[in-house]
Amino acid sequence: MFQYIKRDTLGFTNIDPLQTAGLLTKAAKDALIEWGDGYSVCDYCNGALDLIKKPPIEEFVYKALPEFLGTDAARVMNGARESKFAVMNTLAREAAKSGSFDNYVIMDGWAHYSSKVAAECAGLDVVLTKKPEKEVLPEDFLTAIEAGIEERGKKPLLTLITYPDGNYGNLADVKKIAQISHEFDIPILLNGAYAIGRMPVSAKELGVDYVTGSGHKSMAASGPVGVLGVCGEEAAAQLFRKSVHNKVKEVELLGCTSRGAPIMTLMASFPEVVQRTQPENWEKEVALAQYFIKRLEDTGQFGLFGQQPHRHDVMFFEAPGFFKISEKIKRGRYFLYDELKEKKIHGIKPGLTKNFKMSTYGIGKEKLDYVADSFEEILKKYDEL
Q1: What angle, rounded to 10 degrees, do the helices at 174-183 and 138-152 form?
Q2: Which DSSP string do the residues of 314-373 spell out, in sequence order?
Q3: 249 and 242 in contact (C-beta within 8 Å)?
Q4: Where are the domain boundaries for CATH 3.40.640.10 in the chain?
Q5: Contact 307/135 with Cβ under 8 angstroms?
Q6: With helix as H, strand as E and coil as C, how does 57-107 read?
Q7: What is 26-275's CATH number, 3.40.640.10, 3.40.50.80, 3.40.720.10, 3.40.190.10?
Q8: Is the previous residue joined to 309 through a cis bond, with omega within 30 degrees of 0?
């Protein structure tokens, strides 16, 4: 019963934000088969995974990845959440030596649960900025920092901005938020799980100290896998400190991180990921997202929550027409999932009708028109209810 379990969504038009930018390239699919046996790359390891020269993991980790992220150093991790924990745990350890920081992190109001869990695991309190109606504003961070210092008497260890937020795809003004954070001498971490691999991101250009990304969400890799970048030699030395028990193993990475299929698919897709994140290619994706939004809004049955004009492929719609139907038919709120499945469209969670999240990344105009047409056909099908 456990052998060869098929996915019933293969061949569907996929609009799931967790998957649109994580779909494997052909090169990655080949790598998955070639390197899918356990810790396959460990066959070539002399003690430090990131120093393997063939396959070229060392070149990828120490040259290609920092250049791509706009950082001074980088590592491949088991996911973005592990990356965030590594940063927070390191800062907590270092802060204990100085006494000038308190054990809390300030995050945007839309911060992902994994950011909060990473802080909790590192023994840190979480303070959120106010939850905005549309987007996180720089002044929200200023207010939160000043309030935190007044209440606790010390600065937070870190500020964290989610870019874009995973609910609505809103892109905050990271440069201004980073500037505010640095005015208080507080490092800032950018959680780019839905950015790195989809759009141009440079930590140095944005002014952030740390950046985390998700390979399986946004870099066309099989998961779990993520990336971590850091700016500054001192910060890198602290973050990637070596173990006293094994001089080649890095403590925050627990010696080794991603090995086998995840890191090899990440590397195999990397040339195409670099290409698709060029500014001109990202602008085409944004234009298609805006085109799709307009198509839906023109029906009068859909409303976009968040920034207008929208500047990302992740989007959140209110759909009162679908909700009205769900209240009157036997299948209830699961009708939309069933209707879309019949049309071979995957990605909107079962039970959602009143509002839903989706992504347009990499789908193309023809398939986006098909999705929009399908939404309209479903509404017309139940027009007389």
Answers
A1: 20
A2: EEEEE-HHHHHHHTTSTTGGGHHHHHHHHTTEE-SPTT--SEEEEE-TTT-HHHHHHHHH
A3: yes
A4: 26-275
A5: yes
A6: HHHHHHHHHHHHHCCCEEEEECCHHHHHHHHHHHHHHHHHHHCCEEEEEEE
A7: 3.40.640.10
A8: yes
Tell me the per-residue pLDDT of 255-293, one tens digit each, with 9 for 90 and over.
999 989 999 999 999 999 999 999 999 999 999 999 999
**Cβ-contact 378, 339 below 8 angstroms:** yes
3-class secondary structure, 168? coil
Quote the CA–CA distance of 98 and 257 in Å, as a whole number: 30
- Identify which of 19, 59, 123, 55 has the alpha carbon closest to the alpha carbon of residue 259: 55
CB 187 within 8 A of CB 235: yes
The residues, any chain, with a CB within 8 Å of residue 290's CB and separated by 6 or more, are 309, 310
- Where are the CATH 3.90.1150.10 domain residues in the chain? 13-20+278-381
Q: Are 239 and 107 in contact (CB under 8 A)?
A: no
- Dihedral sign for Cα 203, 50, 56, 20, please: negative
Characterise 57 by phi-psi region: left (phi > 0), alpha (psi -120 to 50), beta (else): alpha
Read off the pLDDT of residues 17-60 as tens digits, 9 standing for 90 and up. Answer: 999 999 999 999 999 999 999 889 988 888 899 999 999 999 99
Strands (E) across the chain are located at: 13-14, 73-77, 101-107, 125-128, 155-162, 188-191, 210-214, 226-230, 303-305, 314-318, 345-346, 355-359
Tokens of 157: 């260890």
Q: Could you tell me which CATH number the domain at 13-20+278-381 has?
A: 3.90.1150.10
What Rg, from alpha-carbon coordinates, does the chain have? Answer: 22
Rounded distance, CA 77 to CA 327, Å?
45
- Asked if the model's pLDDT at residue 102 lies above 90, the reply is no
Residue 13 β-bridge partners: 345
| Residue 163 near residue 212 (C-beta atoms within 8 A) | no
Q: What is the pLDDT of residue 288?
A: 98
Cβ atoms of residues 174 and 195 within 8 Å: no
